Amino acid sequence: xxxxxxxxxxxxxxxxxxxxxxxxxxxxxxxxxxxxxxxxxxxxxxxxxxxxxxxxxxxxxxxxxxxxxxxxxxxxxxxxxxxxxxxxxxxxxxxxxxxxxxxxxxxxxxxxxxx
Amino acid sequence: xxxxxxxxxxxxxxxxxxxxxxxxxxxxxxxxxxxxxxxxxxxxxxxxxxxxxxxxxxxxxxxxxxxxxxxxxxxxxxxxxxxxxxxxxxxxxxxxxxxxxxxxxxxxxxxxxx
Lengths: 115, 114
What we know:
Distance between the termini of chain B: 36 Å
Structural class of chain A: mainly beta
Shape of chain A: globular
Strand content of chain A: over 45%
Radius of gyration of chain A: 14 Å
Distance between the termini of chain A: 38 Å
Number of strands of chain A: 11
Number of strands of chain B: 11
Order of helices and strands of chain A: EEEEEEEEEEE
Number of helices of chain A: 0
Largest interface: A-B, 28 and 23 residues
Helix content of chain A: under 10%
Strand content of chain B: over 45%
Oligomer: heterodimer
Helix content of chain B: under 10%
Order of helices and strands of chain B: EEEEEEEEEEE
Structural class of chain B: mainly beta
Largest sheet of chain A: 6 strands, mixed
């Protein structure tokens, strides 16, 4: 079983839709959770960063972490064509540095928002 | 957030040659990392670049193939040695800022080996 699982999509939605992106993980030691957005031929851009369980909101984006279910989500409200990109989840164990601090990534979900 | 630049942005190289990729950050950072991103695959950590000492490599990556330097807190290089077509990939520099757990990525270097 991979440490982090993410449906690669592609996911296609109409403009204005609410988008739900998800990842599951197997290692209960993960404490720090991140979502990255990657446009074609660009590097990953950090969107959201959360620690432990709970919700975090930033504009149209909401990140949720459910550690009991080992499940994280990113919601995009009022989606725009400019949101079309690949979204990567990533997570890290509590301690930072060395092998304990490395980010483990999902494969990414490709999102297309149609005008 | 830190601003990260990489050189070159892309290159096409012949089998058996080597390429050095540079990573420059606009501010001092705590940690610097090198990742590989292959089509359809997760980002894979190659190594952590340690200032003033040998890099720490992940399983499956060795210093002879991917020598890394980090002479100061804002600069690092990754060399891909004796290249084969299997080394065709995007190579990404990544950093964490001072006193921060947030991790940022550079724009990447797209390498094609023929």
